[in-house]
Amino acid sequence: MTSAVLSVSRLDRSIEFYRDVFSCTVSVREPGAVLLLATDGFQLYLVDRGTRAEHPSGGIGHQFLIWAVGSDSELRDLAAVLTDRGGHPDVSTSGGVSFLTAHDPDGIRIVVAHPSPETFPRAVIAARLYT
Known about the structure:
Layout: E1 3-8, H1 11-22, E2 25-30, E3 33-37, E4 43-48, E5 65-68, H2 72-84, E6 90-94, E7 97-103, E8 109-114
Parallel strand pairs: 1-4, 5-8
Antiparallel strand pairs: 2-3, 3-4, 6-7, 7-8
Organism: Nocardioides islandensis
Domain VOC: 1-115
Protein name: VOC family protein
């Protein structure tokens, strides 16, 4: 996968969040939409839907994004950044993989894993991903 598209309620707030937390940079900006690039080249499109748009979770379709970091210290640093921004990240381990779970400004669930699937292929599916 190379890209994801997220509908957000306040575009500038979401740009700031993904820039500050995940080091994304603005590649293209159009009225009502922006293309962010992560450091590994992953593309994140943010589309402004306004504050009245609904965001159902638990239904069919995309549920959340999973990012990966290169070390336990990066996972801890990310948890500190999210805490400093007023978030409440939760860290757990399943099948030898550490997962940090948090939410973006619109309440979209974000999961960060270490090690990455390329480094440590998954042997189990963490229950917190589907319960």
